[in-house]
Design brief:
transport, MFS_dom, 0% strand, Growth Hormone, Chain: A, transmembrane helix, MFS, transmembrane
């Protein structure tokens, strides 16, 4: 449900913008308002799940997410929609932060655990496929409000099932404590960073630099807090691992490019090629379907045969090539020649790269830090997506507005803005490829655990 909700909004963006009067950069906050609290709170609520019990955190998160979805569905203003989208992000973090921990507890045997994680990944891919398609179908037939209201029956059924099926568990107790000041600092830093990027075109260079400086100061304060706190939210010694640090950096760049493809690609189909919401959702179906098939059918075996490093490089090459093809998308383009080939390259690349980079990141963590490393990996995935979306949408909107001011036709100016975003996305993907090739290359000195344990965990998480 949380994956579906991240994707279902994409196709409905033009309808939401038209109904509530969002500006181009401001529209991105319909997505970012969900992603930023989601990513910023994952570490904290994961820790709280250990303290109060994972089942309790999971069911409470479902309740918050479902209630916020209903409020999104009845939103009548920009401010209300953004506020309840942020509340959705809180509920999404509460559920997602403890899911992998529950899976590990339910399936302690490595092979069964690997199968469970594969099923979990397949469910996520199914959510992606349904999200884009349902977003188009619901928006076109009965209105964009129903892309949120659809979560009500799903959430109620999931909540009742969780109460009945999941065994109760006891946490360590709130007396053990959690780093609430640290969580406040890092969440504030993430929100300010994206806000500075999204509004850069309207605010000007001076205001953007001030916000960036404040955000940097919050990140520095968070780092100092983690170095001195008795129970830090994020133990800094994790970053001594070349594999874990490098893999998280690669993931930020890779996910930033993929989010740009999904968001800008949907707008290109609607605003340049003239697709309806339903046609756009149907056009995007091959991407999540192919990702799901390849992740379940080939990725684990391919990683086992060639190793995660080689598979990751191939995946990043395909992602870079797909973004490069999109950067040529013309104003009079067609889906079959200008969109679908790039979409298939991007999908195959992501299906190869994500399990590989996950395996490398988790193999770079000590056994006692595996849960924290998992939370960090989920956090950087959300951060990469939100920052990539903010940068690329801002660039596209600024380029389009500039051309309109010069007298360019609307569709032509929009297409040119999208091409700029895809070009920058190509550079981001290429930077991820270069970082992976240099930092994650086998044989370099590393503070990662013993090779045997690293290889075993890479196989499991892959």
């Amino acid at each position: 449900m949380t994956i579906l909700d991240g994707n279902i909004v994409t196709v409905a963006m033009p309808a939401i913008q038209s109904d509530l009067g969002f500006s181009g950069p401001g529209l991105a906050w319909v997505v970012n308002a969900y992603l930023i609290p989601f990513g910023g709170l994952l570490l904290l609520v994961g820790r709280l799940g250990d303290l109060v019990g994972r089942k309790q955190m999971f069911t409470a998160g479902l309740a918050v997410f479902t209630a916020a979805s209903v409020l999104c569905g009845v939103a009548t203003s920009q401010g209300m929609l953004i506020a309840v989208r942020a509340l959705q992000g809180v509920g999404g973090a509460m559920t997602s932060a403890v899911v992998l921990g529950m899976l590990v507890a339910l399936f302690p045997e490595p092979r069964e655990q690997a199968k469970a994680i594969a099923v979990f990944s397949a469910v996520g891919a199914a959510g992606g496929a349904l999200g884009i398609f349902l977003g188009g179908a619901l928006t076109q037939t009965i209105g964009w409000h129903w892309i949120f209201l659809i979560n009500l029956p799903i959430g109620v059924v999931a909540w009742l099932a969780a109460l009945r099926v999941l065994a109760p568990d006891r946490g360590a107790g709130l007396g053990k404590g959690a780093d609430y000041p640290g969580a406040t600092l890092v969440t504030g830093a993430l929100m300010l960073t994206v806000y500075a990027i999204v509004g850069a075109g309207d605010r000007g260079l001076g205001g953007t630099l001030v916000l960036a400086a404040v955000s940097l100061a919050l990140f520095v304060a968070f780092t100092l807090r983690q170095a001195r706190a008795e129970r830090p939210l994020l133990r800094l010694r994790l970053f001594r691992s070349r594999l874990l640090t490098g893999a998280n950096g690669v993931q930020i760049l890779m996910v930033a490019a993929m989010f740009g493809f999904q968001y800008i690609g949907a707008l290109y189909l609607q605003r340049v090629l003239g697709y309806s919401e339903l046609m756009t959702g149907t056009a995007f179906l091959p991407a999540p379907v192919l990702i799901g098939i390849l992740m379940l059918g080939l990725s684990a075996r391919t990683i086992g045969r060639f190793g995660p490093y080689r598979v990751l490089l191939v995946g990043l090459v395909l992602i870079t090539a797909g973004m490069a093809l999109l950067s040529r998308a013309p104003v009079d383009g067609s889906y079959m020649t200008d969109v679908l080939p790039a979409m298939l390259l991007l999908s195959a690349g992501f299906a190869a790269a994500l399990p590989a980079v996950t395996g490398l990141a988790m193999s770079g963590a000590q056994e006692e830090d595996a849960g924290l490393a998992s939370g960090l990996f989920n956090t950087t995935q959300v951060v990469g997506g939100s920052l990539g979306l903010a940068v690329l949408t801002t660039l596209a909107a600024s380029r389009t507005d500039g051309l309109l001011g010069e007298g360019e036709a609307l569709v032509a100016a929009t297409a040119d803005g999208h091409r700029l975003a895809f070009t920058v996305g190509t550079g981001i993907a290429a930077a991820g490829l270069l970082l992976a090739a240099v930092v994650l290359r086998p044989g370099r000195a590393s503070s990662a655990p013993e090779p045997e344990k690293a290889e075993e965990r890479a196989e499991v998480y892959g």
